Amino acid sequence: MQYQPGGDVVSELLMGMRLRGASYGKLRLSPPCGVSFEATDDARFHFVAAGKLHLESGTGETFTLACGDAVLLPRGDAHVLVSAPGVRPTPIESFDRMPLCSNVCAVTALEEGSCRTKDVLVFTGRMEFELDTLHPLVGLMPKVMSVGSLMGRQPEIVPLLEAMEREMAAERAGTAGILARLADVVAATIVRGWVECGCGEASGWIEALRDPRLGRVIAALHREPCRDWTIAEMAAEMGSSRSVFAERFTTVTGTTPQRYLAALRMRLAAQWLGRDRMPIDAVARRLGYGSQAAFSRAYKRMMGQPPGKARSSAPPRQNGVSAAL
Asked: Any residues with CB less than 8 A from the CB of 38 and at least 6 apart, and which?
């Protein structure tokens, strides 16, 4: 089923997907070479500006990336990039880095005496999905999303890729910042392309979005996640009785309305605690809990850990962005 822009009451949820760059790296490596990336809570983006690489996922799938290719791993699954099968990769954290600007660094690992025309040049980034995209859509995306599938349908992405390739080859002032912004746009375009093509084989939650009446409820919950919603109010959004609404919601989404809203709010809380470093009591008040203790119990019940863990396990941030590559 093709997505029809403007024809879905929750298009704001699907088409409003935003990615915020957390950190980026400009990698120049001499083959044979390989880099491994651990699993993260963020999306991972790669653009190959020179050479050829193989992306090997943790499940054994392999994707070949040629010059000009870009891929997005929306759930940040563990993977490796290698110049040839069998090459032993080096963890990305093990490389020395040289800061280029506030959230972009350079990683250079060259074999002395090797021909520079054979170097592999990659721009990589960690990207955070913004708040209103913390819904099941991210979990329904493929583990690896390639720009290659967009070339025929969205030719406007080609100039963006060409611009990235030029910037990677240049040593001009401001190149790092421009690359970061281009990477954000290319990654968002990959997501939009998947949405416009009907979200692949995804079902369940997508089916709920395509139900005009049920979709109105989900859109309202995502617009006002901190509101103290009752089943009666949700049913009124759908224009049905409470029993009909609750049964339809559970059948289509696989969870109850109350649990769906609780999960949405706790994901929001996790983002405020971890990414934004908001105090626990402030998060509790913002979500409408009567006490920090009540919020902490609800958070642990839903997330499996106390809220303080979300703050302590978050990577350090510099100038508002994550310091980890």
From this structure: 78, 91
Tokens, residue 259? 């649990």
Using DSSP's 3-state secondary structure scheme, residue 134 falls into coil
CA distance 114 to 202: 46
Q: φ, ψ for residue 202 (rounded to 5)?
A: -65, 140
What tens digit of pLDDT does each residue of 274-325 get?
Answer: 878 899 999 999 998 989 999 999 999 988 899 988 876 655 554 444 556 7
Query: What whole-number distance in Å separates Cα of residue 323 and Cα of residue 325?
Result: 7
Let me know: does 144 contact 71? Beta carbons within 8 Å. Answer: yes
Conformational region of residue 211, where left means phi above 0, alpha means psi within -120 to 50, and beta covers everything else:
beta
Ramachandran sector of residue 104 (left: φ over 0; alpha: ψ -120 to 50; beta: rest) = beta
Tokens representing residue 126 in the block: 């960690």
